[in-house]
Specification:
The complex is a heterodimer of chains A (about 150) and B (about 160).
Chain A (H helix, E strand, L loop, with lengths): L2 H11 L3 H6 L1 H6 L1 E6 L2 E6 L6 E3 L4 E2 L1 H19 L7 E9 L8 E10 L3 E9 L8 E8 L6
Antiparallel strand pairs in A: 1-2, 2-6, 3-4, 5-8, 6-7, 7-8
Chain B lengths: L1 H19 L2 H5 L2 E6 L2 E6 L6 E3 L4 E2 L1 H18 L7 E10 L9 E10 L3 E9 L6 E11 L17
Antiparallel strand pairs in B: 1-2, 2-6, 3-4, 5-8, 6-7, 7-8
The chains are: A alpha+beta (about 150), B alpha+beta (about 160).
């Protein structure tokens, strides 16, 4: 099954779980998505293989970055009609607190959706959404829906 | 023989740093150079790390993880005694998709080290170090206040 067909299917069924499943690296990290209170929330299950600093222990910063980027892409796919996957141009990640051995959540806010470029801000948190562990600002190249 | 010495040195570097950063082994990253504020890591292509199953191109997040790791490694090798460092911020420009099935390399240079912060720039590439897949700047917090050692790459030599 082609990625575009999987994305179209996700829109039809209002369930993007199958799409995340189709992305090998997202599956490898243990990322899932779910609709909650009218928004799309990404979840990263904790696994020992994600540890970057065994002394704290803390999840690897790169994993948190990858999770934020995936959450942003999923938010764009969920919001837009297009079946094309946005291409990342730049990502800036701020690491605010160390991410402990717990489930991590992320939510993206689309700050600008242009015909060619989209800007998405994403925050990740663990127990308390008001205490984010990391935040990202990312720009994506998007394909117009009709193309 | 020089080759044997190089191989032993690489193995020793890998043992030390993969122990400090367990996620390196999980992704199959190999530290090929890590000394005096400069680090190079090789990441062999693997199907599990793909972002787009139709093209086989690595997920952008893999590039992020590789760059974060090599940058942290460059920072900690600049210290008198290696210690884990915490990423403060990381900016990555994705310049082109990584070619499927080919190894991905990342090279980082800690070009400024203060008693609390390491400033690092990094690039990711495949065969040709000038044909960049991604480019990055980042800062790291030193978790202990060990301070810099004298041999960090001087600013006038960092390009």
């Amino acid at each position: 099954m082609k990625l575009a067909d999987i994305i179209a299917e996700a829109h039809r069924r209002h369930d993007f779980g199958g799409l995340v499943e189709a992305i090998p690296y997202a599956r490898f990290l243990g990322i899932t998505v779910a609709e909650r209170d009218g928004d799309l929330i990404a979840q990263l299950a904790f696994d020992a293989k994600l540890i970057g600093n065994p002394m704290l222990p803390a999840i690897h910063g790169g994993v948190i970055g990858a999770f934020l980027e995936t959450a942003a892409i999923m938010k764009l796919l969920w919001t837009r009609e297009s079946v094309h996957v946005p291409k990342t141009i730049t990502v800036t990640i701020d690491y605010l607190r160390s991410a402990g051995p717990y489930p991590t959540y992320a939510r993206g806010i689309i700050t600008k959706l242009g015909s060619r470029v989209a800007n998405v801000r994403t925050e990740a948190w663990q127990a308390d959404p008001t205490k984010p562990v990391a935040a990202a600002n990312a720009n994506f190249l998007v394909t117009p829906a009709e193309e | 023989m020089a080759d044997t010495t190089d191989k032993q040195a690489r193995e020793r570097i890998h043992r030390v740093f993969s122990g400090l950063i367990p996620h390196m082994d999980v992704l199959g990253m190999e530290a090929v150079e890590a000394m005096n504020g400069v680090a190079v890591i090789r990441l062999p292509w693997r199907a599990e790390l793909v972002g787009n199953p139709e093209t086989g191109v690595l997920h952008g997040g893999v590039v992020t993880t590789l760059i974060d790791t090599v940058s942290g490694l460059a920072a900690l090798t600049g210290l008198r005694q290696p210690e884990p460092v915490a990423t403060l911020d990381l900016r990555i420009d994705y310049l082109r998709p990584a070619t499927p099935q080919a190894d991905l390399f990342a090279r980082a240079e800690c070009y400024r080290l203060t008693s609390r912060i390491a400033f690092v720039r990094a690039t990711a590439y495949q065969g040709d170090p000038d044909d960049l897949v991604a480019s990055s700047v980042s800062t790291f917090m030193l978790t202990k206040k060990l301070g810099p050692q004298a041999t960090v790459v001087p600013e006038d030599q960092a390009s």
